[in-house]
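> example.struct
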């Protein structure tokens, strides 16, 4: 059996050499409620985190109680000495407005409450809502008992502020409909958006109906129609660490399965201490910043400096010793390692996704204690073959006893087009190696000799074409280890750093030169004539071109036209990213028939946010 582990983030549990251990969040591990640092628009329990399933045009009001939501009321009154009082309670029968039965209703007389009241509905989760409707029973006896004066509002906050009447009153609500007594409503069915009023869906957690009239009224149903998308939901963990030093992290599993199967985005970052964010006080007298705890920054009024008027809240900045957020890719954690602390965050892209367990594999036996890399040059001309040098430094720190194994394999992941790997130097000496290219992903190098984990300097000389600004060259070393029961492959990603003192870069990202390269470049064809007679000579037209500077896939069209502008063939229609591409035309029209002899135009068109870009050429068809 062969197991894979990617060495990346910081560790958490003491473990014997060679062993791969797991850190489990959720069921069977650390409770989600304990691990949470902050959450937004996501439901959290000890054994799971989730967003609720929702379909387009679904009435989510019927699911309020199933989602853990509630309906309640707040009545405003007058207390002693003219003070305003607010009473939060659940009136008798209020659940009828959410039961899906338009023949039952709630009214203030039956509940023995004032006619002017605030009715709150906690949806039990965050939803993107495109319509709200409420109405009385619509039979002849009750259809005129509609709300004549009211305000309809919504709010996106989590329910922490809804624990008391006082807190409810302080929560800000955005009005959707504002019908005052002097502009009364005359419709039995109240609807937002109003008829003929186009409105984008709004994200909400709570709905409030504030009644403003002493006229008799009732509500049979409140319908809250979702648009079927998930509100932006996020879970952020606290800094995690485990005994055993600075482990290296590997695969990540969601619910015991490949993370790629789930429509969520998981990111990690790593650092040497438990504070990824630094909080500062601005000392007004000395004009300097003082580092304080998060609690001290948030509760600034308890600090003596503030009481004396000598300090105020200062900036909140990333800890420079922590790495940036990196997206888990192909189930592998890309954050630098080995570092003692790790933090993760999860963002949802689809509704109805429940995560019960998040499993991180890790080991405390890295490939190298320090693994840094940089690439040079860091600015190139788009689409042109460039000679690159990838420099890699392997070190051991003198004040630690972390064991390291060394390695014989390097993997370079990049979307750039690799045109050749020329040589590898280890400590300035030519090294024997084998190379395997993986178009669209990069290349792998197998070294003849093992790299010393204590001190090595490696240079990889290769050629490549870069098509997108900010193209990354991710570098990882790997080591194969045999255990009594299985073969393990341990990976460790290199962090970007200044490896070669003769180069100024210290980065693994390559930028395109600042000169104004076109988005569509280097259009070439194999010939100016096509003879589609199947004799093996000039039977088809081959057109190649570069797409440059695209930050995401864009629609691309390859089309053939007559000289008078009539399209005879749509050769390709799809979405491409930056890169070098080739398209073929066989001399036939859209119906599959050979076109008439003559001159034709071929066109490449790219549609982007910045506009439409086209390049054209001409080709003759002859027999």
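> example.seq
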């Amino acid at each position: 059996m062969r197991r894979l582990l990617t060495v990346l983030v910081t560790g958490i549990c003491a473990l014997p050499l060679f062993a791969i251990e797991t850190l489990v969040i959720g069921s069977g591990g650390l409770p989600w409620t304990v691990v949470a640092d902050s959450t937004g628009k996501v439901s959290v329990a000890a054994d799971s985190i989730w967003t609720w399933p929702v379909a387009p045009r679904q009435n989510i009001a019927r699911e309020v109680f199933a989602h853990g939501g509630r309906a309640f009321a707040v009545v405003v009154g007058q207390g002693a000495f003219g003070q305003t009082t607010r009473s939060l309670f659940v009136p008798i029968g209020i659940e009828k407005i959410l039961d899906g039965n338009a023949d039952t209703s709630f009214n203030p007389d039956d509940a023995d409450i004032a006619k002017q009241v605030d009715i709150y509905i906690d949806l039990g989760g965050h939803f993107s809502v495109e319509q709200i409707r409420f109405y009385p029973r619509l039979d002849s006896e009750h259809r005129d008992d509609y709300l004549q004066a009211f305000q309809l509002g919504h709010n996106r906050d989590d329910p922490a502020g809804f624990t008391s009447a006082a807190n409810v009153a302080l929560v800000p609500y955005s009005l959707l409909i504002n019908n005052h007594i002097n502009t009364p409503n005359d419709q039995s069915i109240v609807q937002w958006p109003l008829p003929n009023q186009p409105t984008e869906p709004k994200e909400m957690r709570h709905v409030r109906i504030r009644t403003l009239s002493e006229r008799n009224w009732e509500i049979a149903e409140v319908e809250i129609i979702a648009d079927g998308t998930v509100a932006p939901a996020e879970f952020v963990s606290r800094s995690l660490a485990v005994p055993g030093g600075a482990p290296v992290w590997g695969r990540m599993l969601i619910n015991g399965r490949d993370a790629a199967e789930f429509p969520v985005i998981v990111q990690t970052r790593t650092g040497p201490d438990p504070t990824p964010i630094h909080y500062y006080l601005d000392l007004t007298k000395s004009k300097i910043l003082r580092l304080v705890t998060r609690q001290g920054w948030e509760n600034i009024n308890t600090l003596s400096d503030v009481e004396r008027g000598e300090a105020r809240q200062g900036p909140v900045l990333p800890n420079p010793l922590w790495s940036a957020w990196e997206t888990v890719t192909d189930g592998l954690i890309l954050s630098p390692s080995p570092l003692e602390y790790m933090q993760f965050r999860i963002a949802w892209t689809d509704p109805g996704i429940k995560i019960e367990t998040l499993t991180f594999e890790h080991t405390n036996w890295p490939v190298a204690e320090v693994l840094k890399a940089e690439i040079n040059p860091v600015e190139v001309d788009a689409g042109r073959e460039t000679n690159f040098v990838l420099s890699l430094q392997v070190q051991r720190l003198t004040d630690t006893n972390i064991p390291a194994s060394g390695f014989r394999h390097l993997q370079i992941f990049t979307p750039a087009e690799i045109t050749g790997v020329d040589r590898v130097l280890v400590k300035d000496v030519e090294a024997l190696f084998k190379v395997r290219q993986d178009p669209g992903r990069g290349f792998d190098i197998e070294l003849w000799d093992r790299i010393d984990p204590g001190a090595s300097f490696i240079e990889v000389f290769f050629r490549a074409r870069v098509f997108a600004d900010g193209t990354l060259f991710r570098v990882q070393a790997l080591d194969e280890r045999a255990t009594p029961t299985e073969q393990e492959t341990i990976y460790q990603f290199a962090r970007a750093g200044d490896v070669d003192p003769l180069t100024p870069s210290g980065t693994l990202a390559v930028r395109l030169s600042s000169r104004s390269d076109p988005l569509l470049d280097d259009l070439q064809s194999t010939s100016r004539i096509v003879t589609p007679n199947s004799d093996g000579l000039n039977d088809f037209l081959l057109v190649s071109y570069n797409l440059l500077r695209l930050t995401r896939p864009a629609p691309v069209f390859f089309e053939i036209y007559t000289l008078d502008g009539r399209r005879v063939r749509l050769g390709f229609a799809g979405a491409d990213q930056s890169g070098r591409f080739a398209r073929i035309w066989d001399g036939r029209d859209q119906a599959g028939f050979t076109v008439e002899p003559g001159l034709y135009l071929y066109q490449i068109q790219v549609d982007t946010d910045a506009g439409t870009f086209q390049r054209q050429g001409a080709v003759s068809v002859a027999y």
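> remarks
The helical segments are 32-35, 108-111, 165-170, 294-298, 304-307.
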